């Protein structure tokens, strides 16, 4: 029964929902994204940098557009297959370890007579090797196609090299920003890290290939 002096306060539904949303956002564990985020960022970054560096290396000694495109396409196919197979093997090994651990845990809880719901549902969170392999291959291909498209329609050799560097630099900045936003990491630091790394890879590949060609090796 309410007394005459009692005061009741009602919380608007919108405010209550907003508070719940803010609390759930604050409590969200962004480390849960680490596995797929790592694989996606690694795949895209590897595709961008490795294919761009490969094409820059070929461009250091060959001016024909056909040579650069063929080298880039071969690198895309080889890299996508390598990334997919490597991710499949890695995640499958992780799956075997987690399955073995789950079986040991379930056996122990059965022996103790206390099988709980958490142990019974562990199979739902096990990694999927095939899904990881496909995602890694697609991510690599997505990154690798950027320098290929940048060079495909430019006839002048020097302009083509500049176009590759520009396109890859912009793509690295975009993907670095996306990774930072999704992982709640510092944006400037993330973008600078991937951009400088890409520049170094392209410069080293171009310089070493050029030096080997200048040393008298017939290519």
UniProtKB/TrEMBL annotation:
It comes from Cinchona calisaya. It is a multi-pass membrane protein. The chain crosses the membrane at residues 36-55, 67-85, 132-154, 161-181, 187-208. InterPro entries: Ccc1_fam (IPR008217). One of its GO terms (molecular function) is iron ion sequestering activity. One of its GO terms (cellular component) is vacuolar membrane. This is Vacuolar iron transporter. It is found in: Vacuole membrane. The keyword Signal does not apply.
């Amino acid at each position: 029964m309410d007394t005459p002096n009692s005061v009741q306060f009602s919380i608007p539904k919108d405010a209550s929902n907003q508070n719940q949303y803010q609390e759930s956002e604050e409590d969200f564990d962004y480390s849960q994204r680490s596995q797929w985020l790592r694989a996606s960022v690694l795949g895209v970054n590897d595709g961008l940098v490795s294919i761009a560096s490969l094409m820059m290396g070929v461009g250091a000694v060959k001016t024909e557009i056909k040579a650069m495109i063929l080298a880039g396409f071969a690198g895309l196919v080889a890299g996508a297959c390598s990334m997919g197979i490597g991710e499949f093997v890695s995640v499958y090994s992780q799956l075997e370890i987690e399955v073995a651990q789950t079986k040991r845990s379930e056996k122990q809880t059965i022996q103790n007579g206390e099988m709980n719901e958490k142990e019974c549902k562990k199979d739902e969170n096990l990694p999927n090797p095939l899904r990881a392999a496909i995602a890694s291959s697609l991510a690599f291909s997505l990154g690798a196609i950027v320098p290929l498209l940048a060079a495909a329609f430019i006839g002048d050799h020097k302009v083509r090299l500049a176009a590759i560097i520009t396109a890859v630099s912009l793509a690295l900045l975009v993907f670095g920003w996306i990774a930072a936003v999704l992982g709640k990491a510092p944006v400037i630091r993330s973008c600078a890290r991937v951009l400088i790394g890409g520049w170094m890879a392209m410069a080293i590949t171009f310089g070493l290939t050029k030096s080997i060609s200048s040393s008298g090796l017939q290519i």
